[in-house]
Specification:
Blueprint (H helix, E strand, L loop, with lengths): L1 H15 L3 E6 L8 E6 L4 H7 L5 H5 L6 H33 L7 H9 L2 H38 L10 E13 L3 E13 L1
Antiparallel strand pairs: 1-2, 3-4
Helix pairs in contact: 2-6, 4-5, 4-6
Length: 195
C-alpha cells in the first residue's frame, strides 16, 4: 500500500514538469526558422489526477482560496470520526465490563459501567458507532467532492464570461382578445437574456 502511494505521488510530481512544445514557421520564402513556443494546456484529466492528493487539484486550477476549505472539511469530518470512535470504544468497553465479558478495562469505562444500565450502554455504544461510521462516510464523500470540484473547475478554466452577457427584466402588459372570455389584460414580467 505504501508503494502504491509513493508511486502515485511520484507520477503526480513528474507530470507537473511536462510542457507542450509547438514549432512555428515564420517565413516561407526565407530559410526555415523555427521558434519554440511554450503552450500551457490546462487539462481536466491532470486536475483530476492531482486532486487525488487533497487540495492539489485546486492548486493546479489556481483556485488557492479553495485549499483551506478542502483541508477544513477533512479536519472537521476526521475530528468527529475520531471523537465518536473514542466514545464508541469507551461504551463498548463499559458494556463488556458490565456484562462480565471483559474485566480488564480502563477506569473510565468502569465508571461509565456503574452509571448506566446494560440497555443504556448498548444504546450509547450503538449511537456512537453509527456516528463514527457516518463521519467516515462523510469524509469519503468530501474527498470525492473535492475531486469533482477540481475536474469541473479545470473544464471551465478557459471559459470566458464576456460583457455581452446581460439579463433585462421588464414589466409587460398584453391585451388579449379571447373568443370564449372576451377582452382582457395580462400583466407579467419579460426576461431577455443576451449572450
Amino acid at each position: 500500500m505504501k508503494r502504491l502511494g509513493l508511486i502515485l505521488i511520484f507520477l503526480t510530481l513528474a507530470s507537473l514538469g511536462l510542457k507542450a512544445q509547438d514549432t512555428l514557421i515564420l517565413k516561407q520564402d526565407a530559410p526555415v526558422e523555427t521558434v519554440d513556443v511554450k503552450i500551457r494546456q490546462h487539462s481536466p484529466k491532470k486536475a483530476t489526477l492531482l486532486a487525488l492528493i487533497p487540495g492539489a487539484g485546486q492548486a493546479y486550477n489556481r483556485k488557492y482560496w479553495k485549499m483551506p476549505i478542502v483541508y477544513a472539511g477533512f479536519g472537521v469530518t476526521t475530528y468527529f470520526a475520531i471523537t465518536n470512535r473514542n466514545d464508541y470504544q469507551l461504551y463498548r468497553a463499559a458494556y463488556d465490563f458490565k456484562t462480565g465479558i471483559n474485566t480488564n478495562v480502563s477506569q473510565k469505562a468502569k465508571e461509565e459501567a456503574e452509571k448506566y444500565t446494560e440497555d443504556n450502554l448498548i444504546t450509547l455504544r450503538d449511537y456512537y458507532r453509527r456516528n463514527m461510521e457516518l463521519s467516515w462516510i462523510i469524509t469519503a464523500a468530501w474527498y470525492i467532492i473535492q475531486i469533482i470540484d477540481a475536474n469541473v473547475d479545470a473544464h471551465f478554466f478557459y471559459y470566458d464570461i464576456g460583457d455581452d452577457l446581460t439579463l433585462h427584466i421588464e414589466p409587460q402588459w398584453n391585451t388579449v382578445n379571447n373568443i370564449h372570455y372576451g377582452y382582457g389584460n395580462n400583466i407579467g414580467l419579460s426576461l431577455k437574456l443576451n449572450f
